[in-house]
Design a protein that fits this description.
Elements (H helix, E strand, L loop, with lengths): L13 H26 L2 H4 L1 H9 L24 E5 L2 E5 L5 H12 L3 E2 L20 E5 L8 H13 L9 E6 L5 E4 L5 H4 L6 E8 L5 E2 L2 E3 L19 E3 L6 E5 L13 E3 L2 E3 L2 E9 L5
The structure holds 2-oxoglutaric acid.
Membrane topology: Single-pass type II membrane protein
GO molecular function, one term: procollagen-proline 4-dioxygenase activity
Keywords: Dioxygenase, Endoplasmic reticulum, Glycoprotein, Iron, Membrane, Metal-binding, Oxidoreductase, Signal-anchor, Transmembrane, Transmembrane helix
């Protein structure tokens, strides 16, 4: 009788299994640490890249608990600094095409020839031709569509100037050849007499594209042309081409409270097409 040789059975006890698991865990940990050090490219491992990674994470853009008058969300309003002298910012796509068309529709039936604030000694006759557009004033509360309300709120966020400091929107239309010669929005008391409050900043929302001409111009930007006898009808300096929905903000008053001489601006004549713009003048005091 042949006896079958029996292979001895390896028996693993619980302590051995636990020890083996532990060893596997340690080995895995070691390998992953080694791999992460080897495989992260150089450009991702420096301090700049780690901030880049953080920037793209939502964690970084989470709103924090606001104050009683604050907002519970992070607003994103892209802008470009166009100039420091005057302080001018450009806001691409500030409003939608539909919002712009709605404002134009609302204003169309109410247009009248634009008027001017007169300096001491000036008359309607002597200033004829300075501002040849037509326009109308519409406040946000008058606009039952709610569009001006949305735009006004956004302007207040972008400027951090309270809504109740703003005048009603002045909706303007310039036809071919129409323009606004260079002027200041702030009123110099020496020229206009004592002022209750001052136009501090201006926000222009372009409601239409213009085929040619119609730029908003700043002839004294960065001090240029200030030392020559500048002809106020000339369209020179920094020019902003109107594009439907874009916004332009500039400050007429310096942080020290005096009028910024470089904030002189105007509208170049429209050469082709038609220009529509909504101007919001924002004062240094609450509007009555
Ligand atoms: O129409 C523009 O581009 C400028 C308007 C303007 O200067 C104003 O409303 O004070």
């Amino acid at each position: 009788m042949k006896l079958k040789a029996k292979a001895p059975k390896a028996k693993l006890g619980l302590p051995t299994i636990v020890l083996l698991c532990f060893l596997c865990f340690i080995a895995g940990l070691f390998t992953s640490t080694l791999l992460s050090q080897v495989s992260v490219p150089q450009f991702l491992s420096g301090p700049r890249s780690s901030s880049r990674i953080l920037e793209s994470e939502d964690e970084d853009h989470r709103p924090i608990l606001p104050g009683e008058t604050g907002e519970s969300f992070i607003a994103s309003i892209p802008f470009q600094v166009l100039s420091w002298k005057p302080r001018a910012l450009y806001f691409p796509r500030f409003a939608t095409a539909e919002q712009c068309e709605s404002v134009i529709k609302r204003a169309k039936a109410k247009l009248r020839p634009s008027t001017l604030a007169l300096r001491k000694g000036e008359t309607v006759e002597s200033t004829k031709g300075t501002r040849t557009s037509s326009g109308t004033f519409i406040s946000a509360s008058e606009d039952e569509t709610g569009v001006l309300d949305i735009i006004e709120q956004k302007i207040a966020r972008a400027t951090m100037l309270p809504r109740d400091h703003g005048e009603a929107f002045n909706i303007l239309r310039y036809d071919i050849g129409q323009k606004y010669d260079s002027h200041y929005d702030a009123f110099n008391p020496d020229e206009y007499g004592p002022q209750q409050s001052q136009r501090f900043a201006s926000f222009l929302l372009y409601l239409s594209n213009v085929e040619e001409g119609g730029e908003t111009m700043f002839p004294f930007e960065n001090g240029s042309n200030m030392d020559i006898r500048y002809d106020y009808k000339k369209c020179i300096g920094l020019k902003v081409k109107p594009r439907q929905g874009d916004g332009l903000l500039f400050y007429s008053v310096l942080p020290n409270g005096t009028i910024d001489q470089t904030s002189l601006h105007g509208s170049c004549p429209v050469i082709r097409g038609e220009k529509w713009v909504a101007t919001k003048w924002i004062r240094n005091q609450e509007e009555e």
